[in-house]
Amino acid sequence: MRLGPSLHRIGNDIVAVYLIDTPDGITLIDAGLAGQWRDLTAELTAMGRSISDIRGVVLTHGDTDHIGFAERLRRDHGVPVYVHEADAARARGEQSTKPDWGHMKLGATTRFLWYALTHGGVRTTHLSEVVTVRDGDVLDLPGAPRVIGMPGHSPGSIAIHVPVADAVFVGDALTTRHVLTGAAGPQPAPFTDDPAEALVSLHRLEGLEVTWVLPGHGTPWNRGVAEAVREVARAGATSDS
């Protein structure tokens, strides 16, 4: 799916991966589920591109539904994979957490689990090697992605600001479609290690002048950062009451 001149998405509102397309090559934001490899190659073909045009993968965090085909790219095609240093061990499979699932609805939860099951969610290959990043780093990749530390969902969660795409990629710092309830609109994401810290981290996005706020799960949001943050705060307050 083409969202803009330099911006594409594969997957869907359950699990999404983004491609930043520039004359210098392609940067991937996250690597979804292993079974979305076919979606990746199909989108590249439609773009007139190939795997050899991918210069790097930047992970918003190290959870298994974001690293799906990253090791395949790294191992078989020499594509470096970048992750915040605080999530490097998670991306390598050395650490894991079991956050509370919270409220669920049968239909939405079943759809999420079925999609994960049928797209390789139970056979994720962790990274053997990663390139670690820190808050404030501007990476030498197409689009010059800038790292914004967003701890909360995980210690090393980040947002990635890419001006050429008019976008900030937020991973699970927020969601626009709750995979366990089906609720739509910007709101706190499930499976979050520290929900209170995640809400505080959202303020680090304030002042970004971008159209697109792009989560790892949910509909692409094109009404800017300020309104997205307000909606998440409102949804968080409602869920706490």
TrEMBL record:
InterPro entries xref list: Metallo-B-lactamas (IPR001279), NDM-1-like (IPR050855), RibonucZ/Hydroxyglut_hydro (IPR036866)
Source species, domain of life: Bacteria
A matching Pfam family: Lactamase_B
Domain Metallo-beta-lactamase: 14-217
Record's protein name: MBL fold metallo-hydrolase
